[in-house]
Design a protein that fits this description.
This protein has about 180 residues and is mostly helical. The chain has one domain (about 45-180). Helices cover about 75% and strands about 0% of the residues. The chain is built from 8 helices and no strands.
Length: about 180
């Protein structure tokens, strides 16, 4: 690239550029560009679901390190969580737990997905988050959670609400950002 010393030189080079005969790109290149744009604007549903699942699982494992219930990581002596558990009823505790621990994954998912994927996923979010919440709950119970099955069903409600609320808030803000600019 040529470094320009003054505006007059820049203007002269621009005029020369405009005066040149246009060279059309090869038709094969046009086709490649059209396919790329179409792929970017219409993402495949299973790729979106795969990305979301990966983000949710990683975020879920990270937040489990805070949970004293499983004896993992930093949550072994967390006074706030212990106080919350002692002062609330089991259904309320599990509801808050579900809200808290899945919100990080939903927030990250909303930030990571491209805008076209957010638009494509918006009609599928209820189904995805319902399935993810049920599978996460079954996994927690199967892996030896000390949860009481009936009262911890509130975790599913909290998990579902946390996913939907945080994903919706983050994606709405990202899509509004486009309209403001």
């Amino acid at each position: 690239m040529i470094e320009h010393n003054n505006e007059q030189q820049i203007a002269q080079e621009f005029a020369e550029f405009i005066a040149t005969t246009p060279i059309p790109p090869a038709s094969a290149l046009d086709e490649i560009i059209i396919k790329r744009v179409e792929r970017d604007l219409r993402p495949v549903w299973w790729q979106i679901w795969s990305k979301l699942t990966l983000v949710q699982v990683v975020a879920g494992l990270l937040t489990l390190s805070l949970c004293p219930q499983f004896g993992l990581g930093f949550g072994l002596h967390n006074e706030f969580l212990h106080t919350l558990h002692v002062t609330t009823t089991s259904p309320i505790f599990y509801l808050l737990c579900g809200l808290l621990f899945v919100s990080a994954g939903a927030t990250l998912a909303g930030l990571i997905l491209p805008r076209a994927a957010i638009r494509a996923f918006s009609q599928q979010k209820y189904l995805f988050f319902t399935l993810y919440t049920v599978l996460a709950y079954i996994t927690l119970v199967t892996l030896g959670s000390e949860a009481f099955i009936l009262s911890s069903l509130a975790w599913m409600v909290g998990g579902w609400l946390g996913n939907l609320m945080m994903f919706s808030v983050v994606t709405r803000l990202r899509l509004l950002q486009i309209n403001i600019k």
